[in-house]
Amino acid sequence: MKFLIAFILFTSWLFSSTVTEMKWGKSQTFLNFLDKYQIPRELYYNLDIEAQELAEIIYEGMEYHILVDENGKLRQALIPLTEDMQLSLHKNNNQEYVLELVPVEYIEQKESISFEVENSLSYDLKSITGNSKLAVELMAIFKDSVDFSKDLRKGDKVSVLYKRKVRLGKTWGTPNIDAAFVEANKRRHYAFYDKKAEGYFDEKARPIQGMFLKYPLNFKRISSTFSSNRLHPVLRTYRPHNGIDFSAPTGTKVWSVANGRVIFAGTKSGYGKTVIVQHNNGYRTLYAHLNGYAKGIRRDAYVKQGDALAFVGSTGMSTGPHLHFGLYQKETPLNPSKLKGIRKEGLQGKERKTYLANIAPKIDKLIYYANLQSKGITKVAMVSTGASKNIQ
Fold it and tell me: What is d(CA 246, CA 285) in angstroms, rounded to the nearest whole number?
């Protein structure tokens, strides 16, 4: 369905409607949103369970667009759930509301940036590119090998090759870093993403990030496994169970299975008190039915592998104290029991040979850009691919 822009513009002209960009409220839920515009809740309940679960994790501050007519009636809403999927609410030819899960449309641009540090990595990158998330991703990649607060000094060089997403003329989502070079404390640090291994490695094919921990807590037993057709203990209906339930006493400490950034810490309807952590490579972990949160856990807080996130509880739709642990890669739920991290020994054999051949030209490009600093050039090669992804 290609109506992201065309439908909005056409409808605006035809119905004298107004397109408004909004931000999702702190305690707002999708059902509240439907109630506000007097739209039947059945639209939500008729979604498949995966779409319902995604709607539960719309986070505070998420930008979405609505189209209302001159009487204030909602004609269309596009609400992103992840960087690649969104809920589309609109009226059909019979003037009945339709709710669908559809792809997000965006343009992907290849960009390169190189500069000498003046203030801090975050401040300088945002000043040059206008993209605050680029520094977040770069620091997360090097978190186990570079202490940016101590090792990075004025005059140190940084070069990054990455892809930026553009949606409706604005930077969208998280940039994907392909290769990076950081000079810190007179040492050079490299990071190159290997698609097959799903991780970042250095110039010698050694992993620069730790592995995921297998479990997020000490537990008594696994009370419910990942399943595509589980009998829900409260609703008594069969539906997918996109995670693992760990039975444990109330108050048991829950920790992050990997380095990341907290993107949600609050209440999510059936999930109760919930924490969601964004990791590298598009991975996201969800910790639900909590009793409370650990000190310092709030949105945008950075956590290291093993850091306390919260405590086991029985909030939300729950029959007893347990942790619901979910793992997602972008919008796709994964079985946490099959969670595998980057191999500690690094790439070997043919894999290593192919990797080293692929990164050789990238090393040359990173160093070339870094050396341009002596000529006073602080920003280079903002190149658009012209590629469009996920067209509705």
Answer: 15
Give which of 118, 81, 116 is closest to 100, Cα–Cα. Answer: 81
User: Looking at residues 357-365, what average pLDDT do you find?
Assistant: 91
What are the tens digits of pLDDT across the range 31-74?
889 999 899 888 888 876 666 766 776 777 888 989 888 888 88
- 88 in Cβ contact with 96 (< 8 Å): no
Q: What residue type is 15 in one-letter code?
A: F
Local structure of 109: helix, strand or coil: strand
Which residues neighbour 224 within 8 Å (Cβ) at sequence distance 6 or greater? 230, 233, 241, 244, 245
Task: Tell me what percent of the chain is helix, strand and coil, each rounded to the nearest 5.
Answer: 20, 40, 40
23: helix, strand or coil: strand
> Which pLDDT score is estimated for 293?
95
> What region does 243 belong to: left with phi over 0, alpha with psi -120 to 50, or beta?
left
CA gap 237, 235 in Å, rounded: 5
